């Protein structure tokens, strides 16, 4: 273990007096607003975010990769790193694997190691956007949409293999993101490609265990730059509706064209019971996969505002969505970046939970946009960081995870153990 719990508690003790003061002040303000602080803390503690196995190293871009050292060299070490994050923030209690980057060599050992780190296995991800060394057919011109039935069969079989690994590890869902598309007008028949994709997905869906979910992830562009078969929420929703009740749409925040109203997409999918889960990240231009809340924290709050409204709606048929991060690091320490991302997600969720929904609905019914904004921003501008910190402390984790990560020299110890040149598989 890189550190023991007592070291966290010792560092917490130094920061506790200041924390107690700001938390006391916040609790009084919240209770004056009729907010039950303990219920809020309980909801935050129950809210676990899955960490992507492919985001524990420095991904880089086509222009360069600048590894920071101490990157995990195996699935075991990736699970250890997520365990370290979970020990620091008590909010990262699951890992999402990507196959073949994370094929478990010894399933029992991996299950045991994850359990020892307090981790569950969230959705497993298939990969038919890269060719593997021993692969018979290339995915250069697509996978589930390919014109050649042998390529589609190969891609379907890969997804069935991913489900088998997931079953062995205790996962209950499969995320399918397809790079499939074209880069030139005329290159592909849109309708035939979509129909072939549906037929291939149906083979996968029909082979899934009866208690599994299928998440269909959409993306407007990249790696192809003219069309993507599953380009937007509407296409993903249509596919999920065609497939059946255990197929859902997965919303990756970075997979939207500029200025898309993502909170409206979320509200619409929830209303139809088809919102399966999230890949949280942030972006300024494209699929930048940056730290959650780094660019657009207000948009993240507005998304959680719709989520809370949907989750509190007794008539909603939407299951509890899968909360996952999908990020790629170039400049920040991957683990510090992920700690910041989990904090940003918990903050947005907590802010959405303190929105005065009754007053907001009244303002909306009276067509009073001024009052509606006042009510929303009252919640957004309430600094709930002491409450998130209190939730961590009560769970035995760190008051300030990033500062503890640094004070305990976790990265230095990882570099000492794994070397300065170790590279993680993934993006
Ligand atoms: C595609 C994507 C998808 C993953 C990959 C790592 O951009 O968001 O979710 O498979 O990133
Ligand atoms: Mn994603």
Write up this protein.
Helix 1 (5-32) crosses helix 13 (385-394) and helix 5 runs parallel beside helix 6. 45% of the residues are buried. The protein has 15 helices and 11 strands. The protein is globular and about 65 Å long. It has helices spanning 5-32, 37-46, 75-89, 107-116, 149-169, 190-207, 233-243, 262-271, 297-311, 334-353, 357-365, 369-380, 385-394, 401-407, 410-418, and strands at residues 50-52, 94-96, 120-121, 124-125, 173-177, 181-182, 213-217, 227-228, 247-252, 275-280, 322-325. The strands form 3 sheets. A 6-stranded parallel β-sheet has the order 4-5-7-9-10-11. Strands 1-2-3 form a 3-stranded parallel β-sheet, with no helix packed on it. The longest helix is centred in the N-terminal third of the chain and has 28 residues, at 5-32. 48% of the residues lie in helices and 9% in strands. Strand 9, helix 8 (262-271) and strand 10 (275-280) form a beta-alpha-beta unit. The chain is an alpha/beta fold. The site of 6-deoxy-beta-L-fructofuranose has 10 residues, from loops. The site of manganese (II) ion has 5 residues, from loops.
């Amino acid at each position: 273990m890189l550190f023991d719990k007592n070291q966290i508690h010792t560092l917490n003790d130094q920061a506790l007096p200041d924390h107690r003061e700001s938390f006391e002040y916040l609790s009084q303000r919240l209770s004056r607003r009729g907010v039950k602080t303990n219920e809020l803390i309980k909801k935050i503690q129950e809210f676990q975010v899955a960490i992507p196995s492919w985001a524990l190293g420095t991904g880089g871009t086509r222009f360069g990769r600048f590894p920071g050292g101490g990157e995990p060299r195996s699935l075991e070490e990736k699970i250890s790193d997520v365990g370290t994050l979970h020990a620091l923030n008590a909010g990262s209690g699951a890992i999402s694997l990507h196959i073949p980057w994370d094929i478990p060599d010894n399933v029992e050992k991996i299950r045991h190691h994850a359990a020892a780190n307090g981790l569950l296995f969230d959705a497993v991800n298939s990969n038919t956007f890269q060719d593997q060394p021993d692969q018979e057919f290339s995915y250069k011109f697509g996978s589930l949409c390919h014109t050649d039935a042998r390529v589609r069969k190969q891609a379907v079989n890969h997804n069935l293999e991913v489900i088998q690994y997931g079953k062995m590890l205790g996962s209950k869902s499969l995320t399918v993101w397809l790079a499939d598309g074209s880069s030139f007008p005329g290159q592909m028949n849109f309708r035939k490609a979509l129909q072939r994709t549906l037929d291939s997905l149906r083979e996968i869906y029909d082979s899934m265990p009866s208690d599994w979910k299928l998440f269909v992830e959409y993306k407007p562009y990249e790696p192809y730059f003219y069309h993507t078969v599953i380009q937007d929420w509407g296409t993903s929703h249509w596919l999920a509706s065609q497939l059946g009740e255990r197929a859902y749409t997965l919303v990756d925040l970075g997979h939207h064209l500029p200025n898309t109203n993502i909170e409206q997409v979320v509200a619409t999918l929830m209303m139809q019971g088809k919102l399966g889960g999230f890949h949280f990240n942030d972006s300024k231009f494209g699929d930048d996969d940056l730290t959650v809340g780094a660019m657009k924290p207000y948009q993240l709050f507005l998304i959680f505002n719709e989520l809370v409204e949907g989750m509190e709606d007794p008539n909603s048929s939407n299951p509890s969505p899968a909360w996952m991060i999908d990020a790629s690091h170039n400049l920040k320490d991957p683990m510090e970046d992920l700690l910041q991302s989990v904090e940003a997600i918990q903050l947005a969720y907590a802010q959405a939970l303190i929105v005065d929904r009754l007053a907001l609905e009244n303002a909306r019914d009276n067509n009073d946009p001024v009052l509606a904004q006042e009510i929303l921003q009252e919640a957004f501008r309430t600094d709930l960081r002491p409450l998130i910190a209190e939730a961590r402390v009560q769970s035995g984790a760190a008051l300030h995870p990033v500062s503890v990560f640094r004070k305990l020299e976790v990265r230095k110890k990882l570099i000492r153990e794994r070397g300065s040149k170790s590279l993680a598989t993934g993006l």
